Amino acid sequence: MDRRDFVKLCSLAGLGVVSLGAPGTIGSARAAAPKFWVFVNANGGWDPTMLCDPKGNEKNAQGFNVNNYAPDAILTAGAISFPDIGNNKAFFERFKDICTVLNGIDCETNGHDSGIRNAMSGRLNINTPALPALLAAALNPALPMSFITNGGYDETDGNIASTRLGGADGALKLLIHPNLIYVDDNNFDASPRYLDESSLDLVKKAREDRLMALQTAQQLPRQRHAMSMLYTARIGMSDMKKIQEELDVIRTQVGDFSKYGSGQNLARQAHVALAAYKAGLTQSVNLSVGGFDTHSQHDTNQQNALDALRSGVMALFDIAEAAGCADEMFVVVGSDFGRTPKYNEGNGKDHWSVGSMLLLSPHIKGNRVIGATDEAFAYEKLDLDSLEVGGSGVLKNGHVHKWLRGFAGIADHPLVRRYPISVKGEIDLA
Amino acid sequence: MSHLPLGTRPSFMFAAAALVGAAVLGASGCSEDAPPCESTYDYFATKVWPVIGTKCISCHNAQGIAKDTSYVLKGPAEAGFLDHNLAVFSDLASFEKHGVSQVLLKPTMQIPHEGQQIFAQDSEEYRVLEGFVDKLKSGETCSTAEAAHYTGVELLDDAATLRKASLLLAARLPTADETAKVKAGGPAALEGVLATMMTEEPFFEFIKRTYNDLFLTDFYLGNVNAVTDALPYADAGWYQKVSKDDLAKYGAANAQELAAFTNAAVAREPLALIEHVVREGRPFTDILTADYMMVTPLSARSFGVEATFKNPYDPREWAEGRLPDVERTDAQGKPTGEAVPYPHAGVLSSPVMLVRHPSTPTNRNRARARKAYLWFLGTNILLTAEQPIDQTVVDSNNPTRDSATCTVCHANVDPVAGCFQAFNDSGKFVPDPRWYTEMWPAGFGDEKLPLEKSATGLPWLGRRLSQDPRFALSVVFTMYKALTGREPLIAPSDTTDPDYQAKFAAFYAQADTLRRIGEAFVASQYDLRVVFARLVESPYFRATNSVKLDDSARVRLGEVGRAQLLPPEQLHDKIQAVLGIPWADGNRNPYLRSQFRTPGNLGGFQLFYGGIDSNSVTNRSTSPNGVLASVAERMTIQMACRSVPYDFARGPDSRLLFPLVELDGKEIDPMTFEPETEAGLPIELAQLGIRKSLVHLHERILGESHAVDDPDIERAFTLFVEAWRQGKDGMKATEKPVPADLPYDCRVTADYFSGAAYPEERRVTKDETYVIRAWMAVVTYLLGDYRFLYE
């Protein structure tokens, strides 16, 4: 039985697959371009003034300097300003044409948990699924690894199983071929097997029959849900072989990841994620990088973290280009919140409820900055219709997520409507 | 056999016990004779709370404009909020004017109310509150049966409950004697058998794993240096100077291994304290109040602790000890010669806990305080302030003290943070701390930490945390999650949600059951085993199915039932318990749990199977995915391949999977059961034997009892026969015939554990009839079953 048959059979039997208490979650959203969604979580609360909202070291009206670099170190790439520190220049010059910078976002919190939740879901409420989880659940819930996560905010609220793939090492190979005693790379067909393949086919059929019988007899929703999750996970196992092929193809083209320096970790995450996408198994992915919670020695530590982030995002696009799918990708880069506009006694910066977000994709207009902050790094009000500074609106994560949901075609999906975004007004980033 | 001081048995146990074989819970009232009635508590929770939780709490909360009145409510994010609110509301309701309660007069503005009129005298809200006042006045003593929450739910019988509890808590199957006792003695016998199981080593491992999921101190196992991070105290690195003779006494091959033993002892210190408290039968509150820590002979040397050991060279022996006094320094940092005792406060003052959860100059122990609320009061303090905040409009110089958007959290967090003031950012004890005067003063609740106790803030705090009613609930919450894989529900707050009533019923059913368990825990003098015993009895552990449910009932019973994907460590235990051998690599290193001698080394598939590393991966996966399913798939295939021949290599009396089968008065080995003749004709006796063996396999692997003609047995029988036929045909093939030899990884020539070679006649290396491999197909099928992978 293939996945489509299973879903049909479940429907005939009145059994939901995957969804818990949310009818109609199977593939009812329209397919939307872009096809692959990547969310990069900069964990700990980054400092936009060292990335895309530079201020410089001149004392402001409040009598303090936001940064330690001089105003003349502030450069531009198209419409985007950035300080000439770390690898900012290489980053923005490469991506300016596909990059929308959102500055002056009112993050509405300075707590880590709620901050990254708000940045990645558009809501402060606990148990809100991260947008990549919602995208996977609404657009392609039957994919075996529809939502891959490497950490960051990856709450699913039970709507979809998240997958941790880890690095592409030997263990993954054994999982891709669970019936092989070991994988003979030189002669795959000669790899010894535990069970004869024909027996294994019989086992799988018997399991399907048994699980269906159990689920049909079961009334408690938690158990029915668990059974359907097990089936959905199991039914796609064989697809994992495709990941290995894609990993090898990409690696051959991209070469050694050591060239990404501190971005290697993100590069490895991106490698597996894109291989899974290319293999047709994945709708969305969380990439994760930390080190941003710089309460002490801010400039050095923050710059190190930002360098790793930028190098990693550049690696992500290198890999996507090697895989031939950079045009299909939409990348959201965000963090918990920003850092305070002044340094503390330990030359650190604390939590600040104003932040930024980057959107990188050929699917939306690039080379623009929306929103702004003043010299003390407080948000400026906007006209939410024109997106010009000077209105009465306040840009929030919820606005961005409202638009992202609509852009992805999932805003009216029954599952997504269970998590309404309460911000007033809407913005159009198309 | 010991029995737990369980107090009054939950009413759903009586209801279930009365329905032998069917065990479906039905609604019941106070007694069989009285008509159904609703207790004041139930009435308050289900009817009054939805009113006051929407109409009153926006002002009547700890930071609201009515914060200085005697009517201050707590929100759903705080453990035990219903109990608190019931007490406050009942107190207020008892005040009357002209015979009418204040809770009716104020919101209708019959007497002055700063919040003006909230509802009218002819409103539904008024009627609800009036009903509450009437109940209070009548002094009713009705106690709604707990089973009423779970009407229609079918529970596991006592024997099946025993099997499940045994696998989870004792990492083994119950013995035949234990099962017989429970079948004969019912719930009381179950209670007694469980009490014994909770004295076994795997139970303590379970508790430690549960608390490490919170503390994450196992981060320091293995290659991370707990000794140097957590120990500014004494001769931390003593093990580098040990003689070869002493190394041998410690059982260490070299100084590096001795260092690893020491490191593990330092890392495991808070978990060892929890184990010690439970093992010794002490009140569980000791985990926050103990005026000692736990050390091994090795960590004692690193800490400079004097302790008494039975064997001073045993790296696994734990004993109580106290950290040495710390010398006071003057304002210039010079030692004064005055010694100050280390302020032990159970796990709160554990060096490795403090270093694992460090602070910063601006965080000022707030993260530690937040975790104390979460772990020991069951309260996620950040959820008490889910409303948005905007730092840019805060005009106060000291917002955490003066701005309402900040004080909602900080008024609770900062005083507790102040109790940690004698410990610096990296966890070192500082006898004369200088705390921040602009912060909320150190304390807990309404009580301030006396200034002269600034060095002993943690023992002061530990006593108060442990006596807070929320402590017992927090322990119940933690163990609930450990046994079910689910977080306890938080009450829904959106009363406009069409499912609000059903969602609240789901919350309230669970809250009511967990509250009762908490009360039993307190009544038992904080015996942790009582919490487990009660949880095991509850529908959250035992529910296996229900009558047909409508949409509302599906929401109401959404949390009930056995649907926990086993965490990797528990799946490891179950595999070994059922099959007799573990799932491990060729070097005996387990795939799903850390290695025994080097616990810092995780199993090869532990993270893939949803486990944590206490470092970057700190949340367990509770749903399967493609990778996790592949891990399970490999396990089923590999373990069937290994365990089936291994079982056939055992003596007939010690078989676990394939005991001899009695057929026509003879005992026959299932290894000989060819189902058909060469001509394809059925061999009736062998087929009956196969079915009987399948009945045993379903019982052992899945815990299911079936007759030989049950559809489940028929399904497995068909699998056996078809696999056998295909294999036999394959063996006859002229091109690439299926070999008679078993796959090399499945051959059995020696004892798994000792490595001792078996004599030739006991070895199982060939399968000339393909019967062994047909059994392997069946065992692969059963090991991958929902009821094996889930509990």
Strands, helices and their partners?
The complex is a heterodimer of chains A (430) and B (791).
Chain A: H1 3-12, E1 36-42, E2 74-77, E3 80-83, H2 88-95, E4 99-106, H3 112-121, H4 131-139, E5 147-149, E6 162-163, H5 170-176, H6 197-217, H7 221-235, H8 240-254, H9 264-278, E7 284-289, H10 298-323, E8 329-335, E9 338-339, E10 351-352, E11 354-360, E12 368-370, E13 382-383, E14 388-389, H11 397-408, H12 414-417
Parallel strand pairs in A: 1-7, 1-8, 4-12, 5-6, 5-7
Antiparallel strand pairs in A: 2-3, 4-11, 8-11, 9-10, 13-14
Helix pairs in contact in A: 6-7, 8-9, 8-10, 9-10
Chain B: H1 11-17, H2 40-55, H3 81-93, E1 96-97, E2 100-101, H4 102-105, H5 124-138, E3 153-155, H6 158-170, H7 176-197, H8 201-215, H9 226-230, H10 244-250, H11 255-267, H12 269-279, H13 286-289, E4 293-295, H14 297-303, E5 319-321, E6 326-329, E7 335-340, H15 351-356, H16 366-376, H17 399-402, H18 404-419, E8 443-444, E9 447-448, H19 457-467, H20 469-484, H21 500-523, H22 528-537, H23 539-542, E10 543-546, H24 551-556, H25 568-579, H26 626-648, E11 661-663, E12 666-668, H27 684-702, H28 711-732, H29 771-783, H30 786-789
Antiparallel strand pairs in B: 1-2, 3-10, 4-5, 6-7, 8-9, 11-12
Helix pairs in contact in B: 2-3, 2-5, 6-7, 8-12, 16-18, 20-21, 20-22, 21-22, 26-29, 27-28, 28-29
